[in-house]
């Protein structure tokens, strides 16, 4: 039983307002002690609840010796006043920062990918003591540098990375140092680690089947860069589905989904002017599909009539652009939530096999479906 309130001089007496009374909270919030600048502290919550600072601290940490009613009351008041723990103090006491670092390429694909990833991670972290910081880097720089900085400075308790490669040096670096991390994408480093991935193999297979069902026979693939893990998954799914149908692909390897809009548009125009042009294309990214449609129309052709496209997208924008497109949605917010869960599990010492997840693609959708 929680008796931490029994001996406090400001404990509730008969006739006093209930601890959850809005008028009492309003009165005490106005007079409650706070740091310079108005930031609420443990003393602020203690003042408002009539509890000791030690009891408040333990209640915020879900300490088992604190009663359930007291914990709920303290945590409610903490949310109401916008309390946030002092991370410097936490680090001094525990050696932890309560920070997760999301290392992101500053040129990640358009269409809401970055914002949805951050939203998903933040959504999960809101239920925990952890906070998110974004550590950016440019693809022109060594992607290991921001990871090495976080690890060497101890500026976060865990790291999330994306754009994984089969033999990813960032993954090897963190495994060698025993630093907690999770990856958006799988690797082939030979050691199990936490990850969340989208099944790009299955996506490419379903896309090919959809185009074949529409009567298309001459198919091309607009793929990711060949250095990335998901290129191999997507490419293998496409090639296997084409082989099963007894078809040969139309090569489209002069451009990737990472090229600029202008480059994709120009190369698509060149492709569509060839005698052996495709009548169906599988696109690995929604942003690239915008540019590809422009190139097709530059060639005087029409999507849905002369050619069909099945595109993966992370933001539901393509049907607003051209309703004739066929799309498969990738839930990047779900990926963010899964990655946050995985990296925290890694920090807590859970086995890597329990921190791995793979999202299956949904159906290929036409407009209105």
Core attributes:
single chain; 369 residues; alpha/beta; 434 Repressor (Amino-terminal Domain); Rossmann fold; 3 domains; six-stranded parallel sheet; four-stranded parallel sheet; 14 helices; 10 strands; elongated
What does this structure look like?
Mean pLDDT is 87; it is low at 1-31. With 369 residues, the protein is of the alpha/beta class. 42% of the residues lie in helices and 13% in strands. It has three domains: 22-84, Orthogonal Bundle (434 Repressor (Amino-terminal Domain)); 95-198 and 333-359, Rossmann fold (3-Layer(aba) Sandwich); 200-329, Rossmann fold, CATH 3.40.50. The radius of gyration is 27 Å and the shape is elongated. The strands form two sheets. It has a six-stranded parallel beta sheet with strand order 2-1-3-4-5-10, sandwiched between helices. Strands 6-7-8-9 form a four-stranded parallel beta sheet, with helices on both faces. The longest helix is centred in the middle third of the chain and has 16 residues, at 229-244. The chain has helices at 22-31, 42-49, 53-60, 68-81, 87-94, 113-125, 144-153, 169-177, 200-213, 229-244, 261-272, 286-298, 318-321, 332-347, and strands spanning 99-105, 131-137, 158-161, 181-184, 194-198, 219-222, 280-283, 308-313, 326-329, 356-359.
Short description:
The protein is α/β, with parallel strands linked by helices and about 375 residues long. Helix content is about 40%, strand content about 15%. It has 3 domains: about 20-85, 434 Repressor (Amino-terminal Domain), CATH 1.10.260; about 95-200 and about 335-360, Response regulator (Rossmann fold), CATH 3.40.50.2300; about 200-330, Response regulator (Rossmann fold).
């Amino acid at each position: 039983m929680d008796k931490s309130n029994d001996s406090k001089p400001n404990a509730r007496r008969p006739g006093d307002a209930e601890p959850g009374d809005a008028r009492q909270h309003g009165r005490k919030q106005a007079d409650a002690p706070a740091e310079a600048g108005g930031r609420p502290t443990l003393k602020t919550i203690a003042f408002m609840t009539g509890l000791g600072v030690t009891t408040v601290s333990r209640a915020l940490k879900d300490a088992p010796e604190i009663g359930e009613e007291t914990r709920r009351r303290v945590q409610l008041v903490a949310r109401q006043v916008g309390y946030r723990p002092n991370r410097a103090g936490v680090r001094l006491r525990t050696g932890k920062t309560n920070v997760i670092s999301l290392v992101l390429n500053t040129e990640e694909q358009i269409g809401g990918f970055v914002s949805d990833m951050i939203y998903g991670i933040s959504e999960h972290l809101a239920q925990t003591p952890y906070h998110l910081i974004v550590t950016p880097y440019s693809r022109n720089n060594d992607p290991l540098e921001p990871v090495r900085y976080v690890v060497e400075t101890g500026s976060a308790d865990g790291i999330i990375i994306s754009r994984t490669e089969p033999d990813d040096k960032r993954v090897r670096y963190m495994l060698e140092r025993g630093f907690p991390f999770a990856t958006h994408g799988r690797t082939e480093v030979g050691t199990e680690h936490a990850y969340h991935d989208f099944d790009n193999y299955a996506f490419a297979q379903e896309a090919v089947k959809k185009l074949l069902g529409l009567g298309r026979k001459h198919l091309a693939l607009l793929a990711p860069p060949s250095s990335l893990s998901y290129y191999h998954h997507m490419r293998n799914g496409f090639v296997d589905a084409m082989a099963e149908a007894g078809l040969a692909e139309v090569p489209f390897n002069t451009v990737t989904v990472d090229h600029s809009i202008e480059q994709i548009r120009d190369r698509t125009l060149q492709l569509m002017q060839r005698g052996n042009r495709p009548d169906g294309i599988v696109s690995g990214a929604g942003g690239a599909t915008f540019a590809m449609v422009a190139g097709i129309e530059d060639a005087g052709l029409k999507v849905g009539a002369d050619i069909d496209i099945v595109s993966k997208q992370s933001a539901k924008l393509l049907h607003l652009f051209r309703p004739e497109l066929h799309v498969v949605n990738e839930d990047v917010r779900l990926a963010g939530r899964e990655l946050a869960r995985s990296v925290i599990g890694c920090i807590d010492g859970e086995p890597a096999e329990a921190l791995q997840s793979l999202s299956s693609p949904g159906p290929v959708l036409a407009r209105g479906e």
